[in-house]
Hints:
heterodimer; A: alpha+beta; Alpha-Beta Plaits; four-stranded antiparallel sheet; 4 helices; globular; B: mainly beta; Porin; 12 strands; disordered N terminus
Amino acid sequence: MIRIFITASALALAISGFAAAEAQHAGHDDAHDHGGEALAPSLHSDIEAALAQGGSLVVAEVNGMVCDFCATAMTKTFGRRDEVGAVHVDLDTKTLQLVVHEGRALDDATIADLVTRSGYETVAIRRGTGA
Amino acid sequence: MRTFALAAACALIGAAADARPVSYEGGWTAIGERDRESTSLLTHYTPHHEWSVGYRAEWMRESDILFNGLQATHLVKRWFAPDSQGNLYAYAGAGIAEGIDDNPTDAGAAGFLGVMADWETRRWFVSYEARVSDMGAGADAMQAARVGVAPYVGDFGDLHTWLMLEVDQRPERDEPVTITPLVRFFKGPVLLELGYTPADDEPFASLIYRF
Lengths: 131, 211
C-alpha cells in the first residue's frame, strides 16, 4: 500500500511540474495573476467565435469561484439557456463570460439569479464595449 | 501506471467523502469513497442551491454492517470573497442497516448526523467534519480535519493537483487517531483522491463526478 501512495505521489509531482510548465507557456500567461488582483478578461475562443456570429458580450464578475466545480456549475447553468450562445469561466479574472444570441436578451437580474442558483454571488455585470 | 489504474479502479468501487455535498440547481453528483473504516457511495441531486438529497450506501468493513438510506445536506452558510470561498454544511441520513457475510445482525433502523466546514482558495484548502451515527452496531462518532496546498494554480479545464494531509479521530477504533497523506487530482467535473493511512495500513480513495 505504501508503494501505491508513493507511486501516486510521484505521479502527482510529475504531473504538477508538467501542468505548471504548460500553464506558463500555453496561452494564459497574460491572465495568470495569483496575487488576487482582478485582471482584464481575455476572451476564450468559444466566446470569440460566438461574437463573430453576431452575439453580444456580457461579462459578470463573480465572487467565490475557486475551482473547476464552481466553473462547471456556471457553464452547466448558463449553457442550458436558449439565449446563451457561448459561456466561459475565467478563474484568473473571476469572471463569467457570456455571449447572448443576436436578437435575444438576458437581463442583469436574470443573470444574477442564475449565478445565485449556481451557488455564487454576482459583483458586477458589464456589457458590450464596457465588458 | 498499472498501480495508478488499480488505485483508480478501487476508488470507483469505493464510496463517499462528503466533499462538495451541494451542487448547482439541477445538478447531480456521484461520490465514492473508501477510507480506513468504510466504503460508501453517495449519489445526490440538488433541487435548490442550499440543499441536496440523495441515496447513500455505506459498508462498515470491520463490523460487516451495510447501511442503505437517504441523506439530506443543507448549505447553512457560504462566505464569498473574490479569491476564496467558505462553507458550512449540516447533514443527516436515515435508513436501514444490517449485518452481512458472517454478521448475524438483523436489519434495523440506522442514521447519522454531521457537520462540515471548509475554506479554500485556489492555493490553500482547510476543512473539518464531525459525524455521530448509529449504524446498527451502537453509537459511533468521528471527526476529521484536512489541510491542502496546490503546488501550482491552473485555470478552468486544466489538471489541478493538490497535496493534502488528513487527521481523523475515531474513538472506537484500535488506532483512534490517524494521519492520511493524500493526493487530489481535479479536472473539470472529476475529482480523484488517492492516499494511504499508515497506522491502519489502509488505502484511501475517493472519486467525485459532477454532472
